[in-house]
Design a protein that fits this description.
By secondary structure, the protein is α/β, with parallel strands linked by helices. The chain has helices at residues 13-24, 36-49, 65-73, 75-78, 103-128, 152-171, 191-195, 200-205, 215-226; strands at residues 4-7, 28-33, 55-59, 84-87, 135-139, 178-184, 187-188, 213-214, 236-239, 244-246, 249-250. Strands 3-2-1-4-5-6-9 form a 7-stranded parallel sheet, with helices on both faces. Strands 7-8 form a two-stranded parallel ribbon. The longest helix has 26 residues, at 103-128. The termini are far apart. The mean pLDDT is 98. Bound molecules: NADPH dihydro-nicotinamide-adenine-dinucleotide phosphate and 2-hydroxyethylsulfonic acid. Residues 141-143, 151, 185-186, 247 line the site of 2-hydroxyethylsulfonic acid (8X3).
Length: 253
């Protein structure tokens, strides 16, 4: 029986790479992100290689509770169950100290990275419970284990993802839902372009002089975590480039 994976933040980076990989593995896909035109392009690209994948596009903003609820409720008519939920949508904005931080940036990070995960998980729960092997993968970060200069609120949101992943594992134990957290270090995606508010030169500088992870590295790990035997769960998996020892600590050329 084909499985269905629901990926938030599938318009770029890890989420987009997961979409291609799960399609190759013959999963049906539910893809979210705010940029609907990107979702359409990704759908066309996947279908041009594999016509046997059912793809539902669900463009919504994970920050907006009513939008999340309404969009996910439409799935009740469109699919039988969700087997894997990848809570991946997230972002960092800014690298200033708290004294110089912008409140609207803090709110965007908190609303996306913490509240977004809670809303999506809560409203997807009925569909996960219809699966015989439900699994939630939360995308955390090394920033959820260590706080670094300029990381403040982003680090706090990823520490919250770490706590919520542990809490979900406890709360959902009796419901038979596996909960895993994948925590990457530096990976070259659109993450730093977003963090530096579109300044591509500053973003590129983050990955200068060493080989960072790429989206496919992390997607491969997420897919692997969800394909292990039913009695095996990876609680958390921290992955960094070989050239990174900790946030900001790199072996550069
Ligand atoms: P990208 O910027 O490439 O992708 C982020 C994705 O999140 C996009 O698809 C974006 O879609 C989506 N997204 C952001 N805000 C919202 C929202 N409000 N509603 C719905 N979707 C949203 O970055 P990554 O792939 O690197 O990031 C994915 C996850 O990995 C994030 O949670 C990030 O914190 C985490 N991470 C990243 C690391 C890195 O070094 N790259 C390392 C560790 C963790 P759209 O803009 O279309 O809405
Ligand atoms: C993104 C990686 O080190 O910039 O979560 O926080 S880092």
């Amino acid at each position: 029986m084909k499985k269905t994976v629901f990926i938030t933040g599938a318009t770029s980076g890890f989420g987009e790479a997961c979409a291609y990989l799960y399609a190759e593995k013959n999963y049906n896909l539910i893809l979210n992100g705010r940029r609907a035109e990107r979702l359409e392009k990704i759908k066309s690209k996947i279908l041009s290689n594999n016509k046997n994948v059912d793809i539902i596009l669900l463009p919504f903003d994970v920050q907006k509770k009513d939008e999340v609820e309404k969009s996910i409720n439409t799935l009740q008519q469109q699919c039988k169950s969700v087997d894997v939920l990848v809570n991946n949508a997230g972002l960092a904005i800014g690298t200033t100290g708290i004294q110089d931080g912008l409140i609207e940036d803090w709110e965007t990070m908190i609303d996306t990275n913490i509240k977004g995960v809670l809303y999506v998980t809560k409203f997807t729960l009925p569909l996960l419970l219809k699966s015989s092997c439900p699994h939630i993968v939360n995308v955390g970060s090394i920033a959820g284990k260590v706080v670094y200069k300029g990381g403040n609120v982003y680090c706090a949101t990823k520490h919250a993802v770490d706590a919520l992943s542990q809490a979900m594992r406890i709360d959902y134990l009796d419901l038979g839902i596996k909960v895993s957290q994948v925590l990457p270090g530096a990976a070259e995606t659109e993450f730093s372009i977003v963090r530096y508010k579109g300044d591509e030169a500053k973003a590129a500088n983050v990955y200068e002089g060493y080989k960072p992870l790429v989206a496919e590295d992390v997607a491969n790990i997420i897919v692997w975590v969800t394909e292990l035997p039913q009695h095996v769960n990876i609680n958390e998996l921290l992955v960094m480039p070989t050239a990174q020892a900790a946030p900001g600590i790199f072996k550069k050329n």
